[in-house]
Amino acid sequence: MAEHSNRAGGVSNRATEVGILSPNERSSLVGVGISGYTAAMTKVLVSLDKKLLERLDQEAAQRRVSRSALIAELAAKGLGEHIGPGAHPEVREALRRLQELGRKAPPGDSTVWIREDRDSH
Fold this sequence. Notes:
The protein is mostly helical. It has helices at residues 13-17, 23-29, 50-63, 67-78, 89-104, 110-119.
């Protein structure tokens, strides 16, 4: 199998685009050592300025993620999508409740209150 590595360490899409990999070789890539490469993901071809692509590759290498993962993250952020732990509605609700508890808490040092309560028994 002919492989062309990208800077993030995976097999480049260029190899599949130009037909270097056979259909069997392409299907064998799914779920085998290429992070995030699944049949459920939609593949796209985009045109980018060479310098921008170099910057993306440098950033992906620094973060130790694939180019695709970096572009997906940047696109999601740019479109205002929630990403990370707060992306799930349940987590956002839990964080909102914690913030509300913090606003309702009386001023002072909770450690002192706990010690006082503990020592009073």
